[in-house]
Amino acid sequence: MNHDPNCIFCKIIAGQIPSRKVYEDDDIFAFHDIHPWAPVHFLMVPKLHLPSMAQLTPEHERLMGRIMVLAPKLALEQGCNPYPEGGFRIVCNTGAEGGQEVHHLHVHVMGGPRPWFKG
Ligand code: 5GP
Ligand code: ZN
To answer: Number of structural domains, the chain?
Structure first.
């Protein structure tokens, strides 16, 4: 299934729920987290509805690689300070025991000056 009509992130990607967009291309959408843990906190999601990392197969290698290569660029654009004094943290909660609440694969990118609100 490419889209899940009941999925909140599919609705954000489709523009049915408003979000503060960070980036978009044919395969990837990025937007600010509604409850930021850090001065910079955005989410990167594949447009394809994948519930979590647990569903990844080799056909997703390019997609996930693109997210990882794009993350540092977007982090700097959004105000993270440069490596090594600055940097960012990437988190990808997977499943209930991984702390995942929204079941559309998403990569948290968090950064900015310490202290953070959480994490
Ligand atoms: P998880 O715990 O699944 O890794 O994280 C889900 C994240 O999605 C949370 O940090 C939460 O604040 C964020 N979130 C949930 N609903 C919305 C929403 O409607 N809009 C935005 N921008 N973020 C959301
Ligand atoms: Zn979805």
So the answer is: 1
Percent of the chain that is helix, strand, coil (3-state, to 5): 25, 20, 50
Atom 13 of ligand 1, residue of closest alpha carbon: 33
- For the stretch 99-108, pLDDT in tens is 999 999 999 9
CB distance 8 to ligand 1 below 6 Å? yes
CATH of residue 107: 3.30.428.10
The answer to whether the pTM exceeds 0.85 is: yes
Tokens, residue 61: 């290698």
Which of 20, 41, 43 should be mutated for ligand 1, with most atoms under 8 A from CB?
43
Q: Is residue 48 part of a domain?
A: yes
The per-residue pLDDT for 20 is: 98
